[in-house]
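Lab meeting, item 3. Inverse folding demo.
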């Protein structure tokens, strides 16, 4: 199971990123533990200054703007 965190304060792009990851994981049959991190100090602890950010298994893989579907699928496959 992959541990996925979406870092963001609740903006539309952050919410859309959560949904995109949920949908991609379901479509691929990949089990994910998806957590939304909204606390600014926690977000900054990852070094992310632009949201949404995505952390997979403790590693920041994306920061700033919506990731596209094929990128998300690549994260889940790897």
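The presenter then showed the designed sequence:
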């Amino acid at each position: 199971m992959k541990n996925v965190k979406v870092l963001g304060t609740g903006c539309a792009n952050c919410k859309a990123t959560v949904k995109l990851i949920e949908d991609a994981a379901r479509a691929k049959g990949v089990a994910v533990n998806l957590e939304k991190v909204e606390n600014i100090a926690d977000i900054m602890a990852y070094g992310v200054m632009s949201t949404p950010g995505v952390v997979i298994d403790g590693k920041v893989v994306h920061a700033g703007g919506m990731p596209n579907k094929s990128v998300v699928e690549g994260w889940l496959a790897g």
